[in-house]
Amino acid sequence: MAVGAVVSSEVGKYNGQITSFVVLSCMIAATGGIIFGYDIGISGGVTSMKPFLEKFFPKVYTRMIKDTKISNYCKFDSQLLTSFTSSLYIAGLIATFFASPVTRAFGRIPSILIGGVAFLAGAALGGAAYNIYMLIIGRVMLGVGVGFANQSVPLYLSEMAPSRYRGAFNMGFQFCVGVGVLIANLLNYGTQKIHGGWGWRISLAMAAVPASILTLGALFLPETPNSLIQHNKDPDKAKKMLQKVRGTDDIQPEFNDLVTANEISKTIKHPFKNILRQKYRPQLVMAILIPFFQQVTGINVISFYAPILFRTIGFGESASLMSAVVTGSVGLSMTFLSLLIVDKVGRRTVFAIGGVQMFVSQILVGSIMAAKLGDHGGLSKGYGFLVLILICSYVAGFGLSWGPLGWLIPSEIFPLEIRSAGQSITVAVGFLFTFIVAQTFLAMLCHMKSGTFFFFGGWVAVMTVFVYFFLPETKNVPIETMDRIWKQHWFWKRYVGEEDDKDTNNNPIITECI
After folding, report:
1. Is the pLDDT of residue 443 over 50?
2. Which GO terms describe its cellular component (predicted)?
3. pTM above 0.90, yes or no
């Protein structure tokens, strides 16, 4: 029995090259990842700052400073504190379902623009907050911005990129997420040292910088050829854009596939209803499980709460923030490496390498904390730095695999007729489980203690096995002919092969351009 599937590459079918036009366009769009990463990094940093905790979360501050009897694992266990962190993700979950019809009806650029404006508003509210309500309303606005950006930016990147380089271009989004996390961690390290206790305001308000770049950039971004065909009655406009994007006039085979995909998409009036059809079963399963697995790797535990986690094992405030900078730098470096190799070695190989590395690292961290970190006191300096190294190893594995590939795979597997709906489901599931993990982690750390790392390590083992058996290789497969990989897969072919390709009126339709 063959596991996975490797389909023959059709790269030679499409002409084109990497042009400065498409690189610049994708660089601007990918700043949508910076706003997401910046928020992930900034929220974890400010929640470890004493002035911020004293102003908005005095009970947590009292436990951290004065209560010597409480367990190391329980000092930061506060529902109000987790509500601050996780409110963004429940807002993003709701926003992504509004983003889907906007993206489908008006194109990718309007959704990116709305995301940038909402994030700007959230940054202003956060930086000026004088009570917890204003702080959380700002978080909700940030969530709306991230919801729209995360729904539209990965689609934009995948549709603009040449098929042979689609993995690298799409990973630009996760690379920018890593850049955002690193910038946030560096900024937190600096603002924490500001005398007067107002440094956290700078950290929160500076989110406006990447949001401004995204918003202003979106005003000048071109729409993707796919979107132009979908929304414009003049096919010549889309054809000229495709020629400009690919840097050649010889784009007829790719243009034909785009036109065919658009004709199919016009037969689908209710994409959220149609994605439930049996022929789309593989894509629906991946739309749900890929973002679910990405969150239960435990990465956002590290991203949100890295400074808190390092304080738990005995690091000081500045050392905790600097440790978060180190882990952020490692993750960013590995994402850049993944960007370079993913279109050469394939998605499945990268998933396997990263999965094994993450599993081993988490089990070792859990073992050290179980053996050496009690309810009181801290780890010795040697063990503390060993945990830091292992967490860096874990972050490196995620930055190589589930970080970028968790965004790449869903954005490239959906046919045009359900692409916007599918990406919305992916983003919504990601936000839902990010919210659940963020809302429960501090309580888990308090009650499960070091077992928390074994919990997430077990999920990493499950997802690595799942990818090996059920995810076909998508390397070099043109995005509008991606349906073929499921028809050749040992498991999924029983689903996609049993339902004829028919429109909503049960009339046969053409699925490929010959």
Report:
1. yes
2. membrane
3. no
